[in-house]
């Protein structure tokens, strides 16, 4: 039976991503991710992933009937985020060369809209799964804790410079800096707790690749409360949004996909290949006219 997660979204639509359709393969991928995590030796004992993989939507989606494609995208995408990033504040898919000539577009995948959404998005953009077992969160916390003397200095310098760039000239006692740093460490250890810029910086070290976060101006929570979000851009490579992941659909890619992820996506796509396209009303009326003749 297909595992379909119902979520309260604006259109009240059922969401279905590849990881939900193939639980056995998903668990194998989670074990693969855990096995790929290692800790560096020496003073900078930060965790890192040995495998560099990127999740992409299969170009075979374009071979599906238009009505089936719409159903697939309704179930896998965050339409509100896609519209804002692509139309209202066009910062993705604006290049005709990439979108048309190279058949490569970015799509905003739906996410669970919880405090773990950033970690989920990072794993979605790379392995196509959620951080359900908090493997990535644990690696984040341990890296922050074990390399605290490195990251703390960088964080403190950045916060001081950032405040001064806005004309805020003030100084904190070392005890206050330590209290703020302890709070950042505590966020990394709490499942469901929201993460900040420093956590993204550490995640980039764990992934061994740059990260850029595309922020939407507003987002609606499950209580339909609109909250202002700040646009945060770090680095361009692993693309995530503050509510989900941005993944590409392209016919060819230099990025290496993991065989298990490829199997998972193929099984997910088979679900849509078996759907018969709906016959339009006009087609039905024409058939009736033919029978009358």
TrEMBL record:
Gene Ontology molecular function: cysteine-type deubiquitinase activity; K63-linked polyubiquitin modification-dependent protein binding; zinc ion binding
Pfam families named in the record: OTU
Record has Glycoprotein as a keyword: no
Domain OTU, first and last residues per copy: 106-234
EC number, as in UniProt: 3.4.19.12
Record keywords: Hydrolase, Metal-binding, Protease, Thiol protease, Ubl conjugation pathway, Zinc, Zinc-finger
PROSITE patterns: OTU (PS50802)
Catalytic reaction list: Thiol-dependent hydrolysis of ester, thioester, amide, peptide and isopeptide bonds formed by the C-terminal Gly of ubiquitin (a 76-residue protein attached to proteins as an intracellular targeting signal)
GO CC terms, sorted: cytoplasm; nucleus
GO process annotations (BP): cell migration; cytoskeleton organization; positive regulation of Wnt signaling pathway; protein deubiquitination involved in ubiquitin-dependent protein catabolic process; protein K29-linked deubiquitination; protein K33-linked deubiquitination
Family of this protein: Belongs to the peptidase C64 family.
Protein name, UniProt field: ubiquitinyl hydrolase 1
Organism, scientific name: Pteropus vampyrus
Classification lineage: Eukaryota, Metazoa, Chordata, Craniata, Vertebrata
Gene behind the chain: ZRANB1
């Amino acid at each position: 039976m297909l595992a379909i997660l119902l979520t309260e979204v604006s259109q009240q639509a059922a969401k279905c991503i590849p990881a939900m359709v193939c639980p056995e393969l998903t668990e194998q991928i989670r074990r693969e991710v855990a096995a790929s995590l290692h800790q560096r030796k020496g003073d900078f004992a930060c965790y890192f992933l040995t495998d560099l993989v990127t999740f992409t939507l299969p170009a075979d989606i374009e071979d599906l009937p238009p009505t089936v494609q719409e159903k697939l995208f309704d179930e896998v995408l965050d339409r509100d985020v896609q519209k804002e990033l692509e139309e209202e504040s066009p910062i993705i898919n604006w290049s005709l060369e990439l979108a048309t000539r190279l058949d490569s577009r970015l799509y905003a995948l739906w996410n669970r809209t919880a405090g773990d959404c950033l970690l989920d998005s990072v794993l979605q953009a790379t392995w196509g799964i959620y951080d359900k077992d908090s493997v990535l969160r644990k690696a984040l916390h341990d890296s922050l804790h074990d390399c605290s003397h490195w990251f703390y200095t960088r964080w403190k310098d950045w916060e001081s410079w950032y405040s001064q760039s806005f004309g805020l000239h003030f100084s904190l006692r070392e005890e206050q800096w330590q209290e703020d740093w302890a709070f950042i460490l505590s966020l990394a250890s709490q499942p469901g707790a929201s993460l900040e810029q420093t956590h993204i910086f550490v995640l980039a070290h764990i992934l061994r690749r740059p990260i850029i976060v595309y922020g939407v101006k507003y987002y609606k929570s499950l209580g339909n409360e609109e909250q202002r979000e700040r646009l945060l851009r770090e680095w361009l490579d692993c693309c995530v949004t503050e509510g989900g992941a941005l993944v590409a659909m392209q016919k060819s890619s230099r990025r290496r996909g993991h065989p298990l992820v490829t199997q998972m996506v193929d099984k997910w796509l088979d679900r849509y290949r078996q759907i018969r396209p709906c016959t339009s009303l006009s087609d039905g009326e024409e058939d009736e006219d033919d029978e009358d003749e």
